[in-house]
Give the backbone structure.
Amino acid sequence: MTAFGRSFVVSCVRAWPWLVVLALTALLLMQRAAYPHIIAYPDAWTLPIAEAVNVVMDGIVAGAQGVTRAISGGLNVVFSGVQFFLTGAPWVVSVCLFALIAWQGGGWRLAALTVALLFYVLISGYWIPAMNTLSLVLVALPLSVLIGFGIGYLGYRSERARRIIMPMLDLMQTIPAFAYLIPILLLFGFGPVVGLIASVVFAVPPMVRNTILGFQRIPPAVLESARMSGCSRPQQFVWAEFPSAMPQMLIGVNQTTMAALSMVIIAAIIGGFEDIGWEVLSAMRKAQFGHSLLAGIVIVILAILLDRVSSAYAARQLPGASHVGLSLRRFALVLGAALGVAAVAALLLPALWVWPETRVFFPAQVINQATTDFLLAYGDVMAALKNSVQFYVLLPVKLGFERAIVPFTWGITFTPGMKTTYWIVTLICAAAAFGLNRWKTGVAILVMAGFFYFGATGLPWASVFLLITLVAFQVGGRRLALLAAGTVIYLLINGLWPQAMLSVYLCFVAVLMCIFFGGLIGIWAASSDTVSGIIRPINDMLQTLPQFVLLIPALMLFQVGDFTALLAIIAYAIVPMIRYTEHGLRSVPGTLIDAGLSCGCSSWQLFWQVRLPQSLPQILIGINQTVLYGLGMLVIAALVGTTGLGQAIYVALGEANAGAGLVAGLGMALIAMTADRILQAVIRKQN
Amino acid sequence: MFTNHKIRAALIAGAVAVSPAGAAVAADLGATDETIKLAINEWTGQHISTHIAGQMLQSMGYDVEYVTAGNYPQHTALADGDLHATLEVWTNNVGEIYPKMKEAGKIVDIGPLGLTTREGWMYPKHMEEVCPGLPDWEALVACKDALVTAETFPQGRILAYPADWGTRSADIIKSMALDYKAVPAGSEGALVAELKAADARKTPLVMMFWAPHWVFSEVDAGWVELPAYEPACATDPAWGPNPNATGDCGVEAPVTMKVAWSGFAEKWPAAFEVLQAYTLDTGEQEAMMKAIDQDGQAIEEVVAAWVEANGSVWKPWVEAATQ
């Protein structure tokens, strides 16, 4: 027997479970015309879980409403107080207050930035809505931090609690907020409190994670010396543990702030107070890009301010901080004096109390006109671009070559001869890979060829179930396989299979494109400081601007459909790919590069042989984040007419069907968690 | 989604139930020291309807507050008494909270707002050149090729309401046996954005839409003429162009309804009577929409001017309620 033949047999033996599954898939596909249920999961095999959830929910609502309404009454009082001050105070007093807080945390430069940004808010005419939004964040923040700290400390002290807490955190961060808005609405009643609770749910997890991490990372020496010096348990907590965990917890506070702000926009869907999210949504509804962009920038500004100020306070706690600020007493004195002066000034000059309308600058019509002009000038080019992506990328992945290649799209007919050639080439390539002792490549060739031939919506559900479980088992062992299998079964028995496959198809294409383009941009940014400097603020903007804003020009250019949704997902999910790629490449140790250079590497070789392999772990984390971000955007993508799990959640929201919403939301969360765990297992293998 | 018929039946039942209170007897002002909260939804027409009602109530000495509220969630607020009335509920798109709360007796219909509405397939005016024969629906059969797209090939594309608003377009396509596919738009913004873009670039588009809507002050549009709705169309397959299917006709014109919290009549009897009597003319609402959305005037001023000029319309309602 030749070496090739021997390797072929060895590969076959190693890949036997895969070959069995693939053979079974081929068998199922041959029978699909006779038995349509091979592709479409039979309705009779679904369980009425959503109905059951509704029954349980109704019980909970009836039983708990007394308590929850009391809580929401209390929260409303607190919120109204903050809101009353922020919207009622003269703007000059508020600006002074924020500037001084910034100055205390980060010095003159931060104070100047704060004032400049707040002046944009004033000039834009969105001061009151912005202050309403800020009130909500300022109430949600301490609540999230306290709850997060409590849960986190519990998780640190008790291993058993941690085992329950960790998966809960994943769910809280991956179930789309739209899915639990209705239950919150029923429990807590209409109003800003709904948004408050939703943002607390979403903002607590980073605080919990960082609290646990902070306490776990306390050096044992610190604890030992505390015990040696005779600390009681509470003393040990106050004097040793808490201060040591502080820096990490402050990172948590910063992330919690950003999370709370991002969720406040979602809350605007319920209404109840005139916040900036409502402005964005109203403009989105009218398809007024100018208005929504100008309102969206106000949100970006709030995000920048909250981020910078809370980071500054966090940095001050670190050893060796350059800026210390005043002592608390002196700061209170300065603050009191400055606010007093400002208040008197506002009393004397009404223009300092309420920003005069004549000083509002609102170029929305100019932006709208520019959008229309662009549309007229480049509409045809854009339509051509859309059609090529649609014909050559989206349709093949969605429907497979067998249904996507028709004269209307590719200009040719996919003849039986071509089909046979396709499969023969595939089999030869796979056999060659097997013979060269690369059975994984061979299996990948077979799976991908089948995927592109039949499309995400044309695969037998039983095969998808087996393949995913097998992948999970091979990279992560039995527990991961259980999660993957559970996810698929959950989607099947809830009748969510077709929607889930449509969501997976869209995310799959979006993630591939993010990896390709985001990777290229990241490489470019890593090689040039100028490019990096330009791209960073764009990334910040893409991540903090409400995603609704960019939907409008995308819709006008590309119409309702998957391509527009694809762009929306990419715009958001490409950011981590760019960031991690750049960061990974930039943090390759200089000694390694020097070593490569001294070996006579060309810059091309240096990139492929040294820098890329070295930064691979970072890049893989970027891919992982991109997958999660992409799945998170699916709900937003439903606003431009995609038909997947996102749409299922919207339909449930419209019907006030809490059960259906939660079931679909949980399905999305399970897909996200499975994808995340599989990728993490791959990353661990790489390291 | 509730069908139009169920809604109509419910409306009639609701109207009968409240009619005794509708008899014009001088009513108490009630709790004038407590603020009446009116819902502000996401569209300009509703803002106008609400502000007119608000200014009428204010003229009677009531304290009025406008509270933003989502179109579906507002009914939860009305049921709990967190909001007190909403003045322009489109019965073709109410979600499921509305019928549930009405059944539970927590919210009440207080009569139609009286707008002359229209719902159906609409197209930007240049479509009449692309597709000669429009507005007659049979033109759609002949010019299908102009409306074929990558997503819908080999069928033509009709842009439909978001999936959570029901399946009207798909139902009509099926009943009329047209070679088209309904593509759900995802949101009102998506519908409007497509219409604006198609109008600017003169590209083909047919979509489900409704009037009055502010967008018609920007875009010149026509309506596809389907066989007009009749109850027989929904029950008798023989009726209409397709002898094998029911529903082969346009949709019933939606009703715009005023809805209140169930405790409203008891707390503010006179205000309740005024809101019950309140109706608004479609043409006047459209003129005000244009002033606000196109000419950029403030809604308070536009509505105040209308209230000033139209005392003969609304003062009798107030007088009937208070004298």
